[in-house]
Design brief:
This protein is of the alpha/beta class. The protein is built from 12 helices and 9 strands. The protein is globular.
Amino acid sequence: MGRLRTQPLGKYLSTARYAYSNFVMKEHVYPFYCSFKVIQRCDSRCDFCNVWKYPAPDMPTEKVLKIIDNIAGSSILLLSLEGGEPLLRDDIGDILKHIRTRSLHLLFTTSGKLFDKRPMVEYSKYIDFLHVSIDEGHRNLDYFERLPEFVSWGSIVCAQIVVMKQYLQDLDQKISKCHKAGAKAVVMPACHLNDTDDFLPDLNEFRDEVFRLKKKYPRTIITTDKYLRTLDVPHSCNTASIIVDSDGMLYYPCRTLMDKSIDMSKDSLLEFLSSKAAAEARQKMYACDRQCHWYQYFATDSFVSLRSGLSALEPYLQDIL
């Protein structure tokens, strides 16, 4: 089991101040989680995903680093590097080293198909949470057997499992393998995105099964209770987390609505969040009736609710702190 590295005390105090501001305003003005899609290219063709259907050139390294600095200077505490497949970038090692010099916890999401061609033991020194997407969509189910190897690299390892409706009955055996390997698991339904077929499982059946497995395999599934209870509740999503696209533009209020706002390599994130344009965008999210069930937007509200924040962190707190 890996250990979470600590950040400077000033970073945690700064995060607490932003959290308190959100609490006072009763609004998710300042996010603490950011997904940064550092590449659009992907070595998978998941049926439930649409990212690979929209090719785009890779950002120059210096632009990526500017965006990371912008994120580090904001309310963000946890940065998730995603894609596409981030291991396809030739400069990914330099990017990881740069993040290590900033006050950010790093989550790294990958299909793992390039693990045997990359120095993962070295990379893991810079990664707090290694999320390996393993499911039928990624066509890499054999990676459940390799979880003990991944855990040995030193990061906190989590299998990221997207559940398609025809495979819900197979979830128990997947979680069992995570539990035995000492890995975590984040479980989410296959959201129905634009230009994809509908693989969304029955939400009541999905919720019941995940709650059952959370009891059967203690401290393994980190899918938040808040998400499970409200994934089909209208207007329960929020802007406590943000997504930066592979062109450096900020999706705001969310990726589902596909609205882009500022260029994160040029414009201050903090200044934008307190602007009139950002406030109007948040109102647009609150009025949205699409019910996309996107995990990131439905699961995270710890800047307003301490209880749900502790629920999200509880599996890590018991094993690490």
